[in-house]
Structure formats: C-alpha cells, structure tokens
Amino acid sequence: MRYDPIARLLLTPVDQEAPDRVLRLRRLGLGERSEPAFDAFAQQLAQMTGAPYAMVNFIDENRQFFAGLHTARGTGGERFMARDHGYCPYVVVRRKALVLEDVRDFPRFAGNPLVDEIGIRSYLGAPLIDRTGLALGTVCVVDTEPRRWGRTGLDTIKSFAAELMSQIRRREDGLLPGFQDRREAPHVLE
C-alpha cells in the first residue's frame, strides 16, 4: 500500500483477498503466461469499444499480468505492470466496474504513473469475479484521449467480463479446451 501524505490519498488500495486470489489463479493456471485466446478476447474488446488498448488482467500481491493484450500496434507489448500502477487494482478491491472518462478529473487517479509515463487519459474496466466469489482481475480498455464511455461503455465492459468468466468456468469444467486444473499438475505451465 502506498500513501501520498501531501495529498492525503491512498494510492494503491489495500487488497485483503490477494493471498486467496494468488492461490486461485495458480489453481486455474492463470496469471503466469499469455494465451492467444485472451489476446483475441482483448482485440475483440478493443474493436467493440474503439479503444487503442485492451487487456485481460490478472492481479496478484505485487503485480498485474496481462494474459490478454491488445495495443495500438497489435497484441505485442509488456505483459507485466507493478500493482501500484494503473486502475485495475481499484476495480478488483471495489469489485465494481470503474469508468474514468478523463483520469485528470479525479485527483486520486490523476497522479497515477500511467498518466505521466504513458499518457493514459481514460479508463473503463470491470472485475472478473469467479464462482468462488474472488475477483481474479479485470477486463479493461484505456485510451490516450478523454472518452465519453457512457452507459453503453459500462454495459459493454460488464458484458465482456461476464462472457470471459463464463469461458473460464467452462474451461475449468473441461467443456472448453486449453484448461488443466493445476491441482493435478502444479508444475505444468503450458
């Protein structure tokens, strides 16, 4: 947890579920490697919202991992980010979608390193809540320009989060390929 004593703002939220989330992600085999299906999902999300960046993001105690990533240049890019960068940790802790049409309008978020280092100006994200009730991460889109996401954007991001969790549940149940319960083979990371 980071705190800015001058502005008196909590910069990174306290995440009581992080240890349980780490265990659940390991059991599901998520959060350690990128997957083409997640990249395709992020690309579809970017196309649907018109945003240059979209992510499927799993969060552990120290970092964020973009298992699915679409950038303005395609699906390449850095897959890891510190937990205290970005807006997804807030979504996970709050367990609610977050709409920031212009991050500079919110003092808590305007000072985030992504604003200065990358030039992020708008954010739209929703939590990925699994069948055990844990928020595993997020699906999100960001833009370097302010965006009026509106109700349509909020409904879209929530719908994509629900669809991805449905796919993860089907994979966990063995109904979709590409999933192996890591309890049976914890050392295998395909």
Task: Give the structure's gist in a few sentences.
The chain is 34% helix and 22% strand. It is of the alpha+beta class.
Secondary structure elements and pairings:
Elements: E1 3-4, E2 9-10, H1 18-28, H2 36-49, E3 53-59, E4 63-70, E5 80-82, H3 88-94, E6 98-100, H4 107-110, H5 113-117, E7 122-129, E8 135-143, H6 150-172
Antiparallel strand pairs: 1-2, 3-4, 3-8, 4-5, 6-7, 7-8
Helix pairs in contact: 2-6
Please, could you describe this protein's structure?
This protein is an alpha+beta fold. About 35% of the residues lie in helices and about 20% in strands. The protein is built from 6 helices and 8 strands. It has helices at about 20-30, 35-50, 90-95, 105-110, 115, 150-170; strands at about 5, 10, 55-60, 65-70, 80, 100, 120-130, 135-145. The strands form 2 sheets. The chain has a 6-stranded antiparallel sheet, sandwiched between helices. A two-stranded antiparallel sheet has the order 1-2. Helix 2 (about 35-50) packs antiparallel against helix 6. The longest helix has 23 residues, at about 150-170. The chain is globular. The relative contact order is 0.18.
Shape: globular
Report how far apart the termini are.
32 Å
Q: Report the helical percentage.
A: 25-40%
Task: Quickly count the helices.
Answer: 6
The total of beta strands comes to: 8
Series of secondary-structure elements, N-terminal to C-terminal? EEHHEEEHEHHEEH
User: Which class best fits the helix and strand makeup?
Assistant: alpha+beta
Q: Strand count, sense and closure of the main sheet?
A: 6 strands, antiparallel
Low-confidence stretches: 1-6, 179-190
Give the strand line-up of the largest sheet: 5-4-3-8-7-6
Beta fraction: 15-25%
What is the radius of gyration computed over CA atoms, rounded to a whole number of angstroms?
Answer: 16 Å
| Mean pLDDT figure | 83
